[in-house]
Amino acid sequence: MDEHDAERDALAGAFVVDDLEERAREHMQPGAFDYFAGGAGDEWTLGENRRAFDRWVLRPRYLVDVSDVDASASVLGQEMPFPILLAPTAFHLLAHEEGEVATARGAAAAGATMCISTSATRRIGDIMSTGVTAWFQLYVHKQREIAERVVRLAEDAGCRALVLTIDLPVLGPRLRDRRNALAGREPYPVVMDLMAEAAEVLYPGMPPADLDDLPFDASLSWRDLEWVRGLSSLPLLLKGVMTAEDAVIAVEHGVDGVVVSNHGGRQLDGVSGTLDALPEVAEAVAGRAEILLDGGVRRGTDVVKALALGARAVLIGRPYLWGLAAAGDRGVQWVLETLRDELVMAMRLVGATTVAGVTRSMVAPAPR
User: Which of 132, 183, 186, 222 is the most buried (most CB within 10 A)?
Assistant: First the structure.
């Protein structure tokens, strides 16, 4: 059986993206799987990201001509065939031997935009050589010259937007990883090796950051946004906005967009699911910046609910990592195309012929 046959076999009989989770587990070391699957603390927020979608129901409108449905969207002036992007996630080499290059090939084949993580384990140029359309996600290190350098690399490589993650001043309490360390199956020794490798990949000629002192800059604040904006002419989004208060400040600072995100439930346990936070953020932004949602999206109907509540587009994380682990680039492509097809079906069944036609009137709080 060649590689392509193995990938097809890994996808055989899969109908929804959740079908790939157990298949991914079979292809990964237990500690690596938990690194991607786990959340912070008791993982309550991780679960809330999914449960939040159950708190809304769809309100379909019928006798609408839905013979021709257009799922394309414009995000930050960029035309996309459907409003689903790949969220930034770290260390793809833990899931597949080609890492982010395989992810990018899958995204390119589906026509989706990929957000490359600062913690990528392949060179930006190698990722971009696949022809993928990409944004770049930025962590600000204590050594701020690193941020300046990596943003220049990303912009020179052709990335189209800069996404500043704001919800990681320190690493959240990820108990699965701690327990795996006791069981002798933690991914962190491998992750640390990848971090050192990634440092050389992203910042050639610069010494790797001190790995015993995680390189996030806990002093980063709103006053630093002008500096971040000055690093690049690219559109700037803030990822990690969960309140109306932060949304208002972000708009006052002139950002182009915000991503409603709780870091996939991996940072602060006890915060709301992102879909629950979306309406207040949308009301606060009031059309002055674009809004994207990250967290818990697993079905096309989830995308419809997010659009109806004010998102311009959504980002997915774990689903495409399961596809990557199970079937490489074909798995990533399959996940994206499956969600796209589900979205189109859901739009037909709620009576929306365009993404802009998905309105607030098409959702309501679920009966209690």
Answer: 132
State the total domains in the chain.
1
**Within a domain: residue 296?**
yes
Report how far apart, in Å, the C-alpha atoms of 123 and of each of 1, 8, 130, 143, 272 are. Answer: 30, 28, 12, 20, 35
- What is the DSSP annotation of 160-207? --EEEE-S-SS----HHHHHHHHTT--SHHHHHHHHHHHHHHHSTTSP
- The domain containing residue 195 runs over which residues? 3-218+241-365
For residues 29 and 81, give the distance between their C-alpha atoms in angstroms, rounded to a whole number: 35
* Helices 44-54 & 300-308 angle (0-180, nearest 10): 80
102, HSE (Cβ side, Cα atoms, 13 Å): 25
237: phi > 0 → left, psi -120 to 50 → alpha, else beta; which?
Answer: beta
Active site residue 27: no
pLDDT tier at 143, thresholds 50, 70, 90: confident
> How does pLDDT run across 195-232, given as a tens digit for each residue?
666 666 555 555 544 434 446 788 999 999 999 999 99
Q: Is 205 domain-assigned? A: yes
Tell me which amino acid residue 144 is. Answer: R
% of the chain beyond a pLDDT of 70: 89
Please tell me the pTM assigned to this model.
Answer: 0.92
**Contact status, residue 167 vs residue 239, Cβ threshold 8 Å:** yes
Average pLDDT over residues 345-351: 98
- Beta strands of the chain (E only): which ranges? 56-58, 73-75, 78-80, 84-86, 113-116, 133-138, 162-165, 236-241, 257-260, 290-294, 313-316, 363-365
Q: Does 226 map to a domain?
A: no
Tell me, yes or no, whether 228 lies in a domain. Answer: no
User: How far is 320 from 339, CA to CA, in rounded Å?
Assistant: 11
The pLDDT of residue 47 is 98
